[in-house]
Model the fold of this input.
Amino acid sequence: MATPRSVVVLGAGPAGYVCAIRLAQLGQKVTVVEKTYLGGTCLNVGCIPSKALIAAGSLVDRIGHAAEMGITAKDVELDVRKLVAWKAGIVAKLTGGVGGLLRNHKVEVLMGAGRIVDRNTVAVQTKEGERTLKCDDIVIATGSVPIAIPGFAFDEKDVWSSTGALAPDRIPQHLVVIGGGYIGLELGMMYRKLGSQVTVLEATPGALPGQDRDCVKVIERSIKKLGMKLLVETFAQGYERKGSELHVRIKTKKGDEVVVCDQIASMVGRKPYSEGLGLDKLGLALDPKGFLAVDKQMRTRVPNVYAIGDIAGQPMLAHKGSKEGLVAAGVIAGLNEAYDVRCVPAVIFTAPEMASVGAQESELQARGIAYKSGSFPFAASGRAMSLMETEGFVKVLADAKTDEILGVHMVGPEVTELVAEAALAIEMGATAEDLSRTIHAHPTLPEALMEAAEAVHGMAVHIFQPKK
Ligand code: NAI
Done:
């Protein structure tokens, strides 16, 4: 066996800790340097806590709608402190789990801010003082931070970032959310379900820019149905506190207005984070958006320095970072690995949920690729009816010549789970026919995916498709 390489991984989020564990599995000597918390944004102040609170919001909402099933619950009460403590318990379990895994794999964890001194040296500012680590390779996995817009500095009191929004001490009466993207809508809908009045300010002409527009239409309808306000082509300009009120100045197409609320949440995107890291010591420059360029083996322009996760480019999603972490670990251990994926699934925990993988129609049209499309509505799914969640549909896009599945976009119940099958189909080069010939258990939601694949050929059984 080759001599183990010593590797320093900077950052213990889902890119960094996964990379560190895989490196250890492959026999390398690993130190992970983490400034704040094991598990990074995802486990501590992102994916996991948000999904916990969203689940609570959905439960309250479902109880409110259960009368149709003959169930009425009186006096549903929310104890915010208990809810936040429950969420914190989940986070603690998971981050503790990551710590345990790293320990079991004999990965050294060093809490403190890491700084690159040269291509083989990292200095770490720990509580006990500075430590210098010598290594063969460096993996940069420092993630991203929320973007603040002028006039709305995050004080986590008047103006929440996603971090503040995930640790409330009360449910606001009127929450103004700046940004109608992933985070803005997930958390905006969650607060609506927990009882807030919610106004979302979005700069572009519609919610969730960049997502399949047919799916987004369903979400925009749901925003209305939930009694939320979505103001599009609207920019937040600044705010003033007047007693217990916050007066938010907005610029709309109709002119300037003021929205009065008691809480602001600013969620206008995230940017890669590499402050104070010492990239200049390596002669590495960031691109205009702050990302580090990497090749398919996750190498930066300095061959023994790798970058993975949010810092290495879009999409800034946990699972894409983890995959890159596995690739970098394999490459360092001498395996023939590359980040060579055909698709990265994306999931949005709105109500209903949205999920998507592969190309969108607009993209195929722009690239001049002829495609066929088949859709199946959840309104025709027995399982969706029994769940009382019939909003939405599954749409399959297949190459008009080869029938290969190019993209799948869906909105509706549990689609964040359903997307896994679609991702496998695309990764394996499956055709719409492959998907439609696969027996799907009845009664389940994935039948909608099978029927949408059948619909590509005008052959869905449970909807009427008139012959063209
Ligand atoms: P985003 O890019 O999804 O949405 C930001 C929104 O803010 C956009 O719609 C943009 O048009 C709008 N905006 C920008 N400036 C504005 C202004 N001045 N006034 C009004 N609107 C403005 O970013 P978001 O929601 O903060 O999420 C960041 C990233 O985190 C996402 O790109 C995603 O990669 C990741 N994420 C993933 C989730 C998941 O996988 N379920 C959930 C949440 C976030």
Notes: The pocket of NAI is lined by residues 149, 178-184, 186, 201-204, 209, 235-236, 267-270, 315-317, 347-349 (CB under 6 Å). The chain has 13 helices and 23 strands. The CA atoms of residues 78 and 152 lie 29 Å apart.
